[in-house]
Amino acid sequence: MNALDCLEYIDAELIEEAGRFEGRKRKRWALPVAAAACLCLLLGDAWLLRGREAKEPGVQKWSPSLSAADYFRDCGRDRGPGLSASDSIAMPPYAAELSLDGERRELEEAGALPPLPDHPAQHFWAYYNGNGSLYKLSFWWMERPEDETGGYSDLRLTAAPKELHEVSDEIVITKDEAGNVIPPRVTVTERDGIRIVAEGGEHEAKTLTWQRSEVWYQLYASGTDGEARIVALLDWFWAHPLNLDRFREMAGECFTCCTRDEQPEAFREQIPDFAALGYRAESELVYLASRFGDGPREPVWFDGVYTREETRIRWTLSTGADADAWEACLGRPKEVREEKVTEALSEKNYVNLYVANSVMATLRLEQGSAADAWKIVHSLAG
Asked: How does pLDDT run across 288-320, given as a tens digit for each residue?
């Protein structure tokens, strides 16, 4: 199942809840840029990198003589008349974000980012999951002429230790007038054994997407930027691959880890009464984070391990689950039947549940039976 298939499984209340995040720190011009980037992000991945529903076009081999225009030779947006407006849904799949604007000079001097003096404005952020692990990085360089007569430029790098359709919180799909999803026209280039997917044209927004050393990259350039500019950035990052470890270490600026005894009210309604079910708590940890790296820290993640005789259960709560995790949810505890839990656990050792708006629970059966898991789920049915 690809990311497009996942949309029909997204719960209506989650979509309503997601809309409440629209007012967070985001520039007005950021949404159309994110939409353009994510169109390639989702569709390019679904149709090309995984070779699923459409026949893959020819792959050109990279050589030093390859021009910038060659990367985009098969690209375009001629998709026929009568196209409907794109469908879009926004969900925040991360728990906290940390501004890196003040790190620009240090990152440039360390060789982690290219110096772009003609783009003095920036919007640099690191995004983290509820347990403090890195979700994605976003580096946005901007040029805005003072006279506002045009000539603006937006350049962006998104990087993440995840698959492409998990990288963004914007899902955008283009359809024809009959409601059919339209894959973009793209160009695939193989360079040093790595595939680069390009989408867009000379006077359009452009993206270049690839995976290297277990890191996904996507470069974006606005329609006012020529193909040579985005390819120059590609060449730079090809020679200077990102080291994500330095950004993982920054998570401490957003997160605090403590025991449940220190935060007894955290997720109180979403944690089963394991003691009443005869379980002993081996450990119960609560992660607190400030949404934007400052302000009060609130519970965003819980991880507890419980044992009873030969049974061992791990109960995790997350406020920053990604699209795949939400898609895998069985439903709310009161909606889930024992047969559904048993069937799910026959394929894997965990189940995901909706336990509150924007809060997802994962019950991992480390040792025991599906009947043990069902009793825990049923205890929350209320």
From this structure: 988 776 778 889 999 999 999 999 999 999 887
DSSP per position, 249-309: GGGGGTEEEEETTTSTTTTGGGS--TTTTT-EEEEEEEEEE-TTSSS--EEEEEEEEEEET
Q: How far apart, in Å, do the first and last CA atoms of the chain sit? A: 32
pLDDT score, position 305: 97
Q: Answer yes or no: are the C-beta atoms of 328 and 352 closer than 8 Å.
A: yes
For CA atoms 103, 109, 115, 120, the dihedral sign is positive
Q: Per the confidence metrics, is the pTM higher than 0.85?
A: no
For the chain, give every domain's residue range. 3-251, 254-379
Q: Could you tell me where the beta strands, DSSP code E, fall in 56-182?
A: 59-61, 87-90, 96-99, 121-128, 134-143, 153-160, 170-173
Q: In this structure, how many other beta carbons lie within 10 angstroms of the beta carbon of residue 306?
A: 22
Q: Which two tokens stand for residue 50?
A: 């995984």
> How many angstroms separate the CA atoms of 282 and 125, rounded?
36
Q: What are phi and psi of 126, to 5 degrees?
A: -110, 135
CA dihedral 159, 163, 164, 168 (to 10 degrees): -70
Cα–Cα distance for residue pair 268/276, rounded to 1 Å = 15
| Residue 41, beta-bridge partner list | none
Phi and psi at residue 373, in whole multiples of 5°?
-65, -45
Q: How confident is the model at residue 144 (pLDDT cuts 50, 70, 90)?
A: confident
What token pair was written down for 376? 């825990």
